[in-house]
Structures are given as C-alpha cells and as structure tokens.
Description:
Blueprint: E1 2-6, E2 9-16, H1 28-35, E3 44-48, H2 49-55, E4 59-61, H3 70-75, H4 91-101, H5 103-120, H6 125-130, E5 138-139, E6 151-153, H7 159-170, E7 174-179, E8 184-189, H8 197-203, E9 218-224
Parallel strand pairs: 3-7
Antiparallel strand pairs: 1-2, 2-9, 3-9, 4-6, 5-6, 7-8
Amino acid sequence: MTRIEVRGRAYERIPVKTHVIGIKEPLEPVLDQYVRPLLQPGDWITIAESVVSISQGRVVHQSVIRKPSLLARFIILGVKDHPGDIGYKHAAKMQVAIMQAGGFRMFCAMVLGGLSRLILRRHGDFYRIAGNGVAQIDGFNPPTLPPFNEYAVLGPDAPDETSAKLAAHLGCPVAILDANNIAITVLGSSPDFPVDRDTVRRALGDNPSGQNHEQTPIVIVRAAG
C-alpha cells in the first residue's frame, strides 16, 4: 500500500495481485476472488487496459507478423526511444498498428505527424491522425510477463461500457487505465465514478500497478483521512 496526495486530499493505493489472466478469461470471477474481499465503502478501482483487452481476446501473436512491411520498418526509424519500454521501436508492433489503421492512414500519420513535430514542435499528432486505438497497442516487450511478451495487445473494446458492466458486478466504481512509465490515460470509467479523470491520472501517475512481472493489474484506491 502506498499513499499520495492530490489537491490536498490523500489517497491510499492498494495493488491487487492476481494469477496470470488468460485470453478470453472473464474478469468478473477475478474481481470476486481477489478484489471483493478487500473492498471498503467508498473505494474505487482501476484496471490495466492490457488485462481487459486480454480478457476480450484482443491480442495478436507474433507468429501472425511473419515479415513486417517496408512501411512498418520505415516508420519506426522516426520513433523515439524510451528507456525501459520498447514503445513503437519494433517493426512487428508497428505492423499491427498498420493492420488496425490501414497503410494509407499510417503513411499520412507519419508524414503529417513528422511535419507537425518538426515545424510546430508539437508531439502526439502521429497517434491522433492514425486513430483506431493505435496509441493503445502494447506488446512484444521482452520484460512483459510470459506468455504475453509474444503478443501485441490491442486497446480494449468499449471501455466505458466495460467499466460500467464490471462496476455493476462488483458494486464499486471502475476505471480502465492505459498506464506505463511514459504516461497515463483513462480510457473508460463507470457512470458512478466519484472523481474526475485528472484526479485519477494524478492519483495513479506513478503507475503503482508496475510495468513488469508484478501481476498487480488492479489497484484499489481509498480516500485516506
């Protein structure tokens, strides 16, 4: 358990260790087994988007990408390196993005995003132009817990609706996060969520779930004091 203060209010963050959740494994029994016994009134939880996507079967095995295209290998030449995270500096992962968004759109994203970064000094336009959840694609990262170091994981389907369904089952507010050592994004939340998304980002900004083999994809957040 760790504590953080956001806008003068303290929050305790309790990472919840689970088994390795399998492809298309329902999350409701996972919440019942690991989260429900720890919940207190007023708690809310966050779930890593990768686990939600795995549960939905939104994964691509590396064997599907036998040979990344020339476009994929060209785009990654302009991708920034991030220490400790493979990011998009991986041709097979970029090929998955091309499969999602289409080659023409990815080419446009490369050209226009590059011009925006060069001329306007603005970052992120590549992902905004690519769309199609490209920014949420994860995977092929060696430190990832096996067997998912061999998979690309797409963004979750219908994150708001999924959060609402899980919240109704568990009886507490749920948010789905895309969190890593670079940034944190709230992809979806249930209608009863008690704080705004900026508070969620600040409260979980140091990614207490971890990024490697922690097996703590769920965090219980509890107002302290």
